[in-house]
Structures are given as structure tokens and as C-alpha cells.
Amino acid sequence: MLKLPIYLDNNATTPMDPRVLEAMTPYFLEHYGNAASRNHPFGWEAEEAVDYAREQVAKLIGADAKEIIFTSGATEGDNLAIKGVYEMYASKGNHIITATTEHKAVLDTCKHIEKTGGEVTYLQVKRDGLIDLKELEAAIKPSTILIAIMYANNEIGTVQPIREISAIAKKHGVLLFSDAVQAVGKIPVDVNKDGIDLMAFTAHKMYGPKGIGALYVRRKNPRVKVTAQMDGGGHERGMRSGTLNVPGIVGFGKACELCRLEMEADSKRISILRDKLETELMKLEEAYINGSTEHRLPHVTNISFKHVEGEGLLMGFNKNIALSSGSACTSASLEPSYVLKALGLGDDLAHSSLRFGLGRFTTEDQIDYTVKAISETVLRLREMSPLWEMYKEGIDLNSIEWAAH
Amino acid sequence: MAYSEKVIDHYQNPKNVGTLDKSSKNVGTGLVGAPECGDVMRLQIEVDDATGMITDAKFKTFGCGSAIASSSLATEWLKGKSIDEALTVDNMDFVEELNLPPVKIHCSVLAEDAIKAAINDYRVKNGKEAIKFEESVVH
């Protein structure tokens, strides 16, 4: 029996794997010590658990355990990496390169840096969501200290050519930071093979708990340092003070281990479901996939259904299917998704998009139900859409003088 | 965001979806909003020349649930009203009836604009001057 509602918003957050919760529970109830307490068994147990989890986390990304700095999540990781590098390397330069499709935690951190006297270049992306490597290289100048490019995009799942980007960074002696929230645990990420110097990721996008994440900070070739953004007890090699979230860290470690062992099989299964979903929905007229279908996460698709507005569309099934839309109406800003607009999508298509994030617990039944519900709603709303009627009558919508609104 | 029951009801069972013959002299058509803004409403009224009463109203809307509900409600309100009565419909009437939250007030403004545009279209078609309305405050 199909259980409703269906969760297809795994890019926002994932459910926790029960095995993760199981690993965490004793660290709330029995082993509740502070990992920094050096003088009694409670502290020792906690420290040991943190050390073990640090190994598990490091192993997933091919790092050394000493290179993992635990944070509260990726927003903190993004802030710590960018502001931390900007402050630590101030004597070398003040220029950062990023892209317009980055997460707000990166973009707003860069805006903050601009206010404090830094200089930021925002690279445009191509129609498929990828940055242009030539533009990246051309943007580098003597004052450039950091390139901040995400591994994979949260709205369209586009995977950037990280190895090519890191080769360019290395050639010019610039550090590379990557927000890898959507990629880690979903596709193979290896900080050494990929040539990444700093990388933020978080547990709750990979079946772990909320409120715990990590910043990878390279220790060798080159040795990277960031200025701490919080003052305190000097935890995490002085880069991130604050009592460690031991149960969260234990859960994060377990989640990373599960991803490392199961990612390959999971991805294969999920991508088959994603492809089925996509193929079925693309049978609708005037449906468009947003972003690259070649360089893309296995569990994500983003589709625009022309002449139907995204929020209106969601309302047709959002009691039973959890999804998100790039439509403005879902946000208070009334502006459609800046990521979709950066791809060069017209506002009409940006307003008409749905983002699907499948996950470890997605089933074929759920996909079949979703295809049916969405197809029916699209057809029903198009019958109600004046734009669809005009389109069917062959009227060029661009020829109409729309009232400024 | 949670929708009010009335919005959900209009969304699920919209009243008077459809198209009237826009070339007919008795039909006034208002097309407001823009695809870039994520809302386009087309509201049509059919007017009895002799009595000045609105005998039929139809809509089609591209937009969120609140926009669909506002236009559906507009057609319900318009049917059986005189043109003069129709001109008194205010955007806040929609906000109250549908319990629209502040971020959805623009949907009610659009519905009011659609009514006015349909009436003016009817007037112009029948040799009358278009009424000049003050700019709506919320846009």
C-alpha cells in the first residue's frame, strides 16, 4: 500500500536513516560527556566517539581525519571558509571568484566581503548551468585568493567540472573552496583527486541529523588555514570554538559510512527512478528540463511546464507529494528562482518549474503516483490557463503588451 | 504557507472557467498581469444591452492558487450584477472573503483590475469612453 504524503524534496533535507539514529541514541542517554573533558571516562568516551566519527567522515571524501572541522552545518562551513580565507590571506590579496548560481550562504557571504572592502567576481553560467572555464581563468588576477564554486547545484543538480576548475586554481596558486552539500554522499567526491582545498558539507542532506556539518580544510600541498569566526575554547584546531555536538557528530559519521558503502547501489537505483519520472513527465507537451542532463546528480531533476504557474501547480498535489518550485509565489520575494534565471530561462519558464529530489527511500510506487498526479494537474491547469489557450491558438505571447505589474 | 479553505475550494472546484466570444459586442474582456510576474488573469463578462446587467462571466488564470481563487470568485460575484455594481468591487473584498495573507494581496488587486479592464473593454466596444481609474496602490 502506498503511504502518503510522498517525500521528493531530498535536496532540502533528507529523512534520517534509522541506523543513524540507532548509533546516536547512546550519546544522548549514556555517553553524554563533553568531548573536551579530559579527566573522566565520560569525556574520554565522547572524545573517542568523535575521533571515530571524524575518521568515518574523512574516509567518505578521501581526506585525513585531522582535516575535518565540525560545524553546525554548511551555512556555517561556507561562512567559515570564505570569510576565514579572506581574513587569513589578506596580505596576499582580496579578490574572490564565485558564480551566480551558488547557494545564498556563499553569495551573501561574498556580498558581506564586498562591503568590508573585498572584491568579488560573479561568473555567469552557461545555459546548461556549468561555468565557462575560460571565463574562470580570465577572471583570475594577482589579487585573487579564492575560487568558490559549488560541486553540484541544489536546484538543478548540475555538477560543475571540479577537476578542471581545481587544475586552473592550482596553476595560478589560488585556493579552491567548494560547497559540496548536494554532492557528498550522492556521488564520489575525493578531495585529493578533485584537488579541493576547502569543502563544506552537511549531515542532513545525506540521511544524517540536522545541525551538524563539516568543513574540510587541507593540511598538505598546500597547508590551508582559516581565521576562526567564533571566539572561544579553541576547539577544532582553533578554527571553530564551541562544545562539540557529540551525538550529532556520531550520527554524521554513521551517515557518511553508510553513504560510502551504499552510494553506488543507491545512486544506480535512484537514477533509474529519476529517469522514469523524467521520461514520463516529458511526455507532456511543452515540458523542459532545466540544466545539464549530462553533468548532473543522479537523484535530481528540474522541469518547467510551460504556461502553468509553479505554485498553482504544487497546490494541486502538495498535500500528497512534497516538492519545491522555483516559482516566485513560493517565496516572499515574488522573484522567481535566481538559479533558473541565471541559466537564461525566461521568467515564464522560471515561474513554471518543479524541483524533484529523490532519495534513498524513494520507491517506484511513489514515482508512478507522482507522474500521474502531476500530469493530471498540469493538464487541468492548462485548461484554465489563458496563456495555454493563446499558445494553442498560435498567438506569440511575446507580441502581447503586458501591463507592467 | 497554508491556504484558507475557501482558496482551496475555488482552486479545486473553480467556478466559470472558460472563454466567451471576445469579438461579440456584448462581451468585455480584461487581460491583466504578465507572465514574467507569474500571474495572468483573463476575465470576461457578457452584458445584456437592454438592462446593463452582467449575464455571464468566465475566467482563465495563469497563477498561484490565490490568483485562481480570486478570479473564480470574481466571476461568481459579477454574474447578475449591473455594471455599476460591478465597479464597486474592491480588492479588499477578495482579501476578506478568501482570507488572503499579505503576500497574496497582489492577487486581489489583479482581480479588481481584471474587472475594470473587462468593463472598459465592453464600454469602448459600445462606443462609450473608457473610465479612467486611479492607479491601484499595491502592485
Polypeptide structure, described:
The complex is a heterodimer of chains A (about 400) and B (about 140). By secondary structure, chain A is an alpha/beta fold. Chain A has 2 domains: about 5-10 and about 265-390, Aspartate Aminotransferase, domain 1; about 20-260, Type I PLP-dependent aspartate aminotransferase-like (Major domain) (Aspartate Aminotransferase, domain 2), CATH 3.40.640.10. Chain A has helices spanning about 20-25, 25-30, 40-60, 75-90, 105-115, 135-140, 160-170, 190-195, 245-280, 310-315, 340, 345-350, 365-385, 385-390, and strands at about 5, 70, 95-100, 120-125, 145-150, 175-180, 200, 215, 285-290, 300-305, 320, 325, 355. In chain A, the strands form 3 sheets. Chain A has a 7-stranded mixed sheet, sandwiched between helices. Chain A has a 4-stranded antiparallel sheet with strand order 9-10-13-12. In chain A, α9 (about 245-280) packs across α13 (about 365-385). The radius of gyration of chain A is 22 Å and the shape is globular. Chain B is of the alpha+beta class. Chain B has one domain (about 5-125): Sufe protein. Chain: A, CATH 3.90.1010. In chain B, about 40% of the residues lie in helices and about 20% in strands. Chain B contains 5 helices and 3 strands, in the order αβββαααα. Chain B has helices spanning about 5-10, 65-80, 85, 90-100, 105-125; strands spanning about 25-35, 40-50, 55-60. A 3-stranded antiparallel sheet of chain B has the order 1-2-3. In chain B, a hairpin with a 4-residue loop joins β1 (about 25-35) and β2 (about 40-50). In chain B, α1 (about 5-10) crosses α2 and α2 packs across α5 (about 105-125). The longest helix of chain B has 21 residues, at about 105-125. Chain B is globular, with a radius of gyration of 14 Å. In chain B, about 50% of the residues are buried. The interface of A and B includes residues 307, 310, 316, 400 and 402 of A.
